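Protocol step 4 of 6: structure prediction from sequence.
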Amino acid sequence: MLESIDNNRTEILAELEKEYYAVEMPKIRMAISELIKEIGDEFKENRIEFLENEIKELKTKLTAENIRYGFTDGLGKKIVRENIYNLEKEIKRKTMHIMAIKNESQKITQEMIARAREYPIADIVGYKGKGNILCIAHKEKHPSMTIKNNYAYCFSCHWHGDAIACYMLIHNVSFVEAVKALQ
């Protein structure tokens, strides 16, 4: 009897969880979105400032971990390297969040970004489809950059990027400018 009550309770909880994610979460997201629209630019500026402060703190921690890496050996070195990787990943995530907030205010949509990423890199860098080309990120005598699946990678300097990154590098423009140019 207790087992059937426990199974029934589990089923009810699972059903409630489904309903929460299917019904309540969209309502919450919509309410948050509407609130953000009402608050407007002030919220965005405060959020950007908050994220920038978090990035500064993370960079300080990253510097400390890099110093610690030089004084560590064995298993400790592996742990410190993982910490460094996680800090760099978090910095990049927060930086991308800032870029998304700024892009929102400059009228860039996710569809525009997707379209820009699909723009043929070969047209941007002058790739003819055979072999490697000279890298756009550094000066070199022998071609070491390849383009595959609309993604560029340099075997020499390890620079890599999509159409937007290539356009930004070649034309020295911002993310927003690159996305708009690649429409």
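Step 5 (inspection) to follow. The first helix runs from residue 2 to 39.
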